[in-house]
Amino acid sequence: MVINPLLISNFMKLSLRKTKTDKKDAFVIACFLNMFHSSLQESCFLSSDFQELAREREKLSFQVSTLKNDIEKLLAVTFPELLKATNVYSKGILNLLKSYPSAWMIKTLSASEVAKLIKPEGKGRRPDISPEKILPLARDSIACMSPAREFILSQKISQLR
């Protein structure tokens, strides 16, 4: 079991002993568990629980990484210039790309529409690229028109959020 060391420390302070050895510490921990085992059962994690949590975290990290790689591959076709110009994983840029997932679609927008889409919600950071820079990139883009890839990109961004 994994138990908060402060609980054991406070329990040790209840005893009058002043000596501290590994053997006596083990005895105090055993006494603590004997007294409070039933109430601790609900709040303690077994070491196997931590292993499961670590495996799940690793699996989720791998899934996020794979999703980001997929998004970058799709953007390399639908709007490659944006990849080099800004962090495409900022909330504002993801919001723009979810609604308009290609240079072909973005170039039809006005600067105010782009600004509204990339504006951070709440206390988010301002995007590091302005609508005035995004629109010329979209107009001059070498991107291919691909409705299927645009749809897939929009879906991948929805999964990332």
Helix content class: 55-70%
Q: How many separate domains?
A: 2
Radius of gyration: 27 Å
Choose one word for the global shape. elongated
Describe the sheet with the most strands. none
- Class of secondary structure makeup: mainly alpha
Number of helices: 9
* CA distance, first residue to last residue: 35 Å
* N-to-C series of helices and strands: HHHHHHHHH
The unreliable regions are none
Instruction: Please report which band the strand proportion falls in: under 5%, 5-15%, 15-25%, 25-35%, 35-45% or over 45%.
Output: under 5%
Mean pLDDT: 87
**DSSP strand count:** 0
Describe the protein's architecture and organization.
The protein is elongated. Helix 7 (111-118) crosses helix 8 (131-139). It is mainly alpha-helical and 161 residues long. The chain has helices at 5-13, 22-40, 47-78, 80-85, 91-99, 103-106, 111-118, 131-139, 147-160. It folds into two domains: 5-40, no CATH class; 47-160, no CATH class. The protein contains nine helices and no strands.
Write the layout of secondary structure elements.
Blueprint: H1 5-13, H2 22-40, H3 47-78, H4 80-85, H5 91-99, H6 103-106, H7 111-118, H8 131-139, H9 147-160
Helix pairs in contact: 3-9, 5-9, 7-8
